[in-house]
Amino acid sequence: MPAAPTRTNPITPAGYAALRARYDHLLGAERPEIVEIVSWAAGNGDRSENGDYLYGRKRMREIDRELAHLARRMKAARVIDPADQPDRERAFFGATIELADEDDARKTVTLVGDDEQDAGAGRIGWSSPLARALRGAAVGDLRTVRLPTGDKEWEVVAIVYG
Closest Cα partner for 34 from 48, 54, 49, 18? Predict the structure, then answer.
């Protein structure tokens, strides 16, 4: 039976650096501190009532799970630098796009990797409904996005890279 295809994870260089920094911090700083606390607490005797020991073991499991998750995401990552985009007339990964709805309300979004999305800052994940609708759009194009509240139409007003 063939192995399941590995899903690539597009990410900007800054997004990858943030993932790497989090991984390095957990592995190099946070986990060793917790290991030290657990070792100290284990030497204090009865572990069943030792809060430092119990909390430390729990926190170590959480850190190990996050490290494994970050390792998988970094392994699947495909770093794409928006500055290298050859077709700057269309919306692709890394583009910052200004949109206008039918009421001329403006919205600016940047298409980034799913691991670096932050809707409050205008960074939307590459696999989000809005990002999928905007892929390949040019200035002046109308794109319809299916939302839970119904369909919404956006016009692409401007596209900028970098």
Answer: 54
